[in-house]
Amino acid sequence: MSHCSEGLRNGGAKRCAVCNGRFGLVRHYSWRTSLCSKKCLDRFRARREADGNWVGDLFAGKSLTRSDFRTGPA
Questions:
Q1: If you average pLDDT over residues 27-39, what whole number do you get?
Q2: Which of 10, 16, 20, 33 is most buried per CB count within 10 Å?
Q3: In 3-state terms, what secondary structure has residue 31?
Q4: pLDDT at 2 over 60
């Protein structure tokens, strides 16, 4: 007889971290994150790289301007 607590200990990712899709026969991993496809793997890596870029700018002493934060057309 299984208990709910057993499922929590042995549980892993049930869905893709990027698109929330179901896993197929193959799982892709990046930074201990389960992903469903090569496309999601590429999107995850691009997002991590973009997240790391602005942090690196702060530590490198680059001064950020308002245009660095602009998301829409100028």
A1: 92
A2: 16
A3: coil
A4: no
Q: What residues does 34 pair with on adjacent strands? A: 29
End-to-end CA distance of the chain: 62
Domain boundaries, the chain: 13-60
pLDDT in tens, 34-66: 999 999 999 999 998 888 776 666 666 666 566
**Using CA atoms, how far apart are residues 54 and 30, in angstroms rounded to an integer?**
21
User: pTM surpassing 0.70?
Assistant: no
Q: Give the pair of three-digit tokens for residue 49.
A: 């790289």
Residue 35 contacts residue 44 (beta carbons within 8 Å): yes
Q: How far is CA 4 from CA 1, 12, 22, in A?
A: 10, 14, 22
How far is Cα of residue 66 from the mean position of the Cα atoms in its chain? 26
